[in-house]
Description:
Blueprint: E1 2-8, E2 11-17, H1 28-35, E3 45-50, E4 57-63, H2 73-85, E5 92-97, E6 100-107, E7 110-114, E8 122-123, E9 128-131, E10 135-140, H3 149-157, E11 168-176, E12 179-186, E13 191-193, H4 197-206, E14 213-221, E15 224-232, E16 238-246, E17 248-254
Parallel strand pairs: 2-3, 4-5, 10-11, 12-14
Antiparallel strand pairs: 1-2, 1-17, 3-4, 5-6, 6-7, 7-16, 8-9, 9-10, 11-12, 12-13, 14-15, 15-16
Amino acid sequence: MRFYKYQGTGNDFVIVDNREVNHSALSQQTIQHICDRRFGVGADGFMLLNNKSGYDFEMIYYNADGREGSMCGNGGRCIVQFAHDIGISKSDFNFLAVDGIHLAHIEKDWVSLKMSDVAAVQHFENYALLDTGSPHYVKKVADVAAVQVVNEGRDIRYSETFKEAGVNVNFVEVINHQSLKVRTYERGVEDETFSCGTGATAAALVNYYNETGENSIDIEVLGGRLNISFNRNADGSYDNIWLKGPAQKVFSGTFPI
C-alpha cells in the first residue's frame, strides 16, 4: 500500500489515496499497526481520501487505535494539502467528513479549514464542555507546562462521567485576550499529542474575548502555532469558525498489508 505521511503542528497522519477503492476493507488491527510508532509507520491517525460525487473528496478518519473517529481538525487540514499535492490543483476545497461538509483554503504554506458551527458551550465550575466536531473538555490552568497531561487527562477521560463515550481533555493557559497555550490528551490516541485542531478550536471558543462579533485567537501548542477565528452570536452560539495553520508532507513510502 502506498502511503503519505503529513503533519500539522506536530499532529501527524498517515494518508492513503483511496480513489480507486483499493483499501476500504482495512481492518482495525491493520490500521492500528500502521499507526504504531515502533512497529509501523507511526501516526496520531490514519485517513483515506475517497471520491465523492458533488465534492472534491471525502475524508475518512481513523484514530491511532484503528477505530473510525470523529472529526479531526488538523487531519482535515493535512488531507486538504494532500489532495492538492496529488493533483486536485485548486486553492479552495469543498469536502465531506464524518461531521458534514467542510470548506478549506490553501494560501502558501497555511491551510485554513472551516469547522462545524457550535450551538452552545456547557460551563461548569472548573471546566467547560463542547463539541467542535469531536467532544472536548476544557480546563483553565495557571501554568500549562506544569500539568501532568497524560495522567490528569486519562483520569478525566476514563472517569465515570466520560469513560463510555470518551472525551478529549484540553488544559489551557490564558496569555492574554488574544493568545492561549493549549495541551491536549486525545481519546483514541490515549496520549498527549503535539497538537489537536478541534481541541484548539474548543479552547478558543471557551476563552473568547468579544461578547459578540468576530474573534481571532492565536494558539500555542507543543508543535507550533495555530489561529482560530470565529463569530460569537448573542445567543451563545458560534459560526464562521476557521482553524488555520501549517500542513506539510513529511515523507511517503509503501507498507505491506
